[in-house]
Design a protein that fits this description.
The structure is a homotetramer. The first copy, chain A, is α/β, with parallel strands linked by helices. Chain A contains 11 helices and 17 strands. Helix content of chain A is about 30%, strand content about 20%. A 6-stranded parallel sheet of chain A has the order 12-9-8-13-16-17, sandwiched between helices.
Chain lengths: ~375, ~375, ~375, ~375
């Protein structure tokens, strides 16, 4: 039993779609330059009409990419990765009239009651009930642990508290994390917790500000640089706990993307933003569930590149879940306003979220 | 074993205190009118010098009240409750020089290391680690369940989610609530959940907006008005779950204070703000722990009237804990900025807070 | 020229409305108790069918009230003000099928383009552009200054800054305020500013925390109580500036509603929440524009009781504008989630809002 | 007349400082690797003792860098830019006992009254009065326009509103901006406003969501890539307004730092975070005033690298002002919690801030 709805493809025998012309393509005039009228993708399933009623589904779309037609294959390509001469789909409509159909309702439940002219609480806020959201999430994670690809996107706050840090390590050890996307700070403060029991100099349990604690993250970075990599530093310094160590132990890939806010950075950090995007995108393509916590920068970046569906190897289409956990409506709304409308927000402190999750899944 | 520090009274043999003059009093010129130079209390322990080295401790202070000397008894009285002729303590210093001593360090641990010119994270935020805060809170609640007076101050959001509402009812049944202070909305939506499984028309589990749901709270209020009281309505409508019902079952007093935002209100609501303050203050005086969730109005009101200490029947002095649980630093800071400096903030969603608390205490 | 759109009434010759039955009424079984199936109003124009194609428009609706039919007059009455035997409209549909029609589109512009399956920025946030919102507001205020009824709802923060306090006083003097709704704190801190140049002890210009400043608001309250009223205190203490003084000078009515958070309160404060609601509602009924700043409690209370339209003496129907100015999306969304959907949010600091407004209107 | 306080250097004849040993240095064991016990700088003035009472002041410090002694020159160097063999200052005390003195009070006013055990409003919030903050800022900007180096750090929201965008362009034209630090989004949406009058598809004046508007920023990026640079695109597309164009016209350097959130990016964006930091640091070193608006990422990055003082060519030492303008206390507190304690927060909407600033300075 899967915990998600079946996919209902479009009915291409519908008169308007049956009448659709074949899609048009134009060659990219240069590498990284798009032809006029290029079609930009959403994260919904996107189909193009090859003619004769043959529609092709992109195997996993994303926001603000383009479609490149390679013979019978439809690739979703970031504009900067388009090569001169690539055959780029053109057309800015979505209803088939130019041979492009964006299918927004593939996973919809049959329509509910609704219809009041007036309702309270039409917008999700911190006062929305999340009891079911949690239970659904547990079901999804239990399923995807064995049959999916769970991607975590973590801000440093997860490592600032003893129990949430331990919970995340537990989830990794329990098989609930297939890739970890984060920044320099998450890794640094996770090691700081291992070596000093602090986060930016504050004890991760007692909240005490430790004397000299503002040196801890700098000492951590210097130590790792001295050893040459996170892997060697963790081995040689005898680090036995934490998030990064759990990833290494369980061979979970970690992508650390650099930013202008970084101290150091650690040697494992990818400092070029385009290379970092490519490394992150490799996991976003495969994701079946994404959980983004306590980081606006990384959450929006990954939100931009994650499809709302995935075509599995056996051809079935399933939804990709994207959870954003944040303290403020602004964070969640920002994701929605940048187009990641499928994001499900859980408004709470990430520490509690982590601890609850692990308490419920570890059983 | 108590989970809190011992109280260290001031050393009145210290030269500056030994030299303190007796305190001065002046008669109130009218009822509700204070004499010039009146002393306003804080929520710290306040002592007045009667002369000859005899210092009197108010048995539980509060913000912005005055001290009335009644023979040898020192009463903490809200200005509007002062009667003409009451002997009001005057003097605006706090160091003994006018016979008034405010003792801010009675529960302090011996001084820590500290002393860096520079630290990170000097301010509490959502990124502060709360692992120990939770554990301390569990210890305090386990102790105060049997040996204290736990006062809850609740906003309606607690009733908007199935699991947090059940957790609160569980805590009441488990003996962890000796008084409940709230408003019209908490009671209304708690009954709405019992009768309709919604909060303001939204299902408390599925988040679905129910057709006609914006009538639910009005129907609830009308039903209770028809029955004449919450108690009768709950009995006669056969309500079997929820927060208010748990209070009735376990004879936990409920104070519902009215506000201009109320529909109805329910017949049990105290609509005069001064009478409501008096009813709330009766519990604030006895409180050993206060937990205020998801309500700025009530949290600040109760914060204003709650001492930071209490003199127990056997004469020992213990701290009064005040927890504020809120999603935003602004809420917690506002309490601090209004003078309730002893408030401990836990920044999270109140639903998670409630569920965690009950999971840990019910065991 | 009016700065607002013309009202387009419903087309009652439309087949579904032409076929509508006459509305049903039922007698209230007790005072303050509603008959089963009562119809609750929204703040949109609401019509009831008397039969024979005669539809009656309530002259100004509000959230969560009921309709009482008094001969040919349709009164919008708060449930608690309903008298036993009042003929209350029953029916919970809004499309005419029970003789009740809620008209949500009376002021709509002809439909725009729209129709994309996907858009960014569908939700209003702090990043929304407000240039035109300001210009529209200036036009509305210039119009309503002479031809409307502008109601201000103020939180204390307006008085905490020298320039915003002066701007509000300027707007009152300039005729841009026909009623002021606020609480005890606004009046107290406005007088504190006049007497001590502070707000809760902080200098309203330099931000300095003044020694002994935490006594200021208590001294203010005590002084006013000693004089017996705000009016007498302002006259006898020689207060020459500020918001309350401007209201007295220009005979602008002030309603101060009490709350459980109040110190004092001042003698002019209405401490019973139902009486306060009645006094506020008298102004909400007449309002053509409401501006609510920096107060969730009062903003939501007034939002609940304000119509989205008003029938003028000459029978024309015009929109009632409701502006909410707040720093957080949560505040504005909360208003929307409580049903005041017509509220227009301007997300900014109220100080800047006030200063900008006055700079633009005083010219 | 300068609008800032005179600098009072430390009194090195004070016994504890007179007794200070010479500072110790250690050679960096590798490039980018620090010797054990390295001293990390704050953004306060930092002095090292060369012996014999000769103290050397770093000409402009920053957070989390190190001090390299080059003969008689004291360089402040980011750890990753340290070369093998560099003579790095070691020692983790700040009071002179290891020959290092951090001077935190150089610009302090003589101590004020203070001393109450209890005050309200000890923390800055949205309710703090900002009247004087604005006036001081105007004075500083008028001074630094001709005698300083004003650095702006801008998030994209500044370009999302017609009036704030025009105000920023006005400030640049008026000489109030000597360098602009921003990201890909600011430049993209500024050009989007020029070409389409939208920001992410929303009209920057009317708030209307324009049909097809979600293509605008992609079209902008594609156009600029086609032209090869912002400069050529602006010239060849005939763009006549906006922030970037004003910078080009007035030869104000623009540093655009890349991030993983970027679409495109524009060809002018520096995608390597270390190169971007270097380019930003060149301006932070010279800054006399920094104003950071509506961007946490860039604000904290620049906050980390900006000194709190600067030694001018004539040897005088002046404060460097750092303003952070944001809607939430969290943003401002985060900067403080990351060590940029000198940051002055103005809590408001950046649109209003910009418009007010320009209205007051353009006069």
């Amino acid at each position: 039993m899967t915990p998600f709805p079946a996919y209902v493809p479009p009915d291409f025998t519908r008169p308007d779609l049956a009448a659709a012309p074949p899609v048009r393509v134009a060659e990219a005039p240069g590498s990284g330059v798009l032809p006029a009228g290029f079609h930009a993708t959403s994260n919904y399933p996107e189909y193009v009409h090859l003619g004769g009623g043959r529609w092709l589904l992109a195997s996993g779309s994303r926001m603000d990419a383009v479609l490149v037609l390679d013979g019978d294959m439809l690739r979703v390509v970031e504009p900067r990765l388009v090569r001169r001469g690539d055959r780029v789909v053109v057309g800015r409509t979505e209803n088939g009239e130019e041979g492009i159909y964006v299918h927004t309702t593939g996973f919809d439940a049959p329509a509910g009651a609704g219809g009041d002219k007036f309702t309270f609480r039409s917008r999700g806020t911190r006062e929305s009930p999340f009891s079911r959201s949690y239970e659904e999430l547990y079901d999804i994670l239990r399923h995807d642990r064995d049959h999916g690809h769970i991607v975590w996107v973590l801000g440093p706050a997860v490592a600032f508290d003893r129990d949430s840090r331990a919970a995340m390590a537990g989830l990794i050890g329990g098989g609930y994390c297939h890739a970890l996307l984060a920044g320099n700070a998450l890794a640094t403060h996770d090691l700081e917790a291992a070596l000093f029991h602090t986060g930016l100099g504050q004890d991760i349990y007692t909240q005490a500000l430790v004397a000299g604690g503002h040196y801890h993250h700098l000492d951590v970075i210097n130590e790792v640089l001295r050893h040459g990599s996170l892997e060697r530093a963790i081995a040689e310094l005898g680090i036995r706990d934490g998030i990064i160590r759990a990833c290494l132990e369980h061979r979970v890939p970690v992508v650390l993307a650099g930013s202008i806010r970084d101290d150091g950075p650690l040697p494992d950090v990818i400092t070029d933003s385009r290379q970092a995007q490519d490394a992150m995108r490799a996991h976003a393509r495969r994701a079946t569930t994404v959980i983004a916590l306590a980081t606006q920068l990384h959450a929006i970046a990954v939100g931009n590149m994650t499809p709302s569906y995935r075509v599995l190897d056996d051809g079935t289409v399933r939804p990709v879940y994207f959870y954003i956990v944040d303290m403020s409506e602004f964070g969640a709304d920002k994701l929605a306003n940048r187009g990641s409308g499928q994001a499900r927000a859980i408004l709470t402190n990430v520490q509690d979220f982590m601890v609850n999750l692990w308490n419920n899944l570890k059983g």
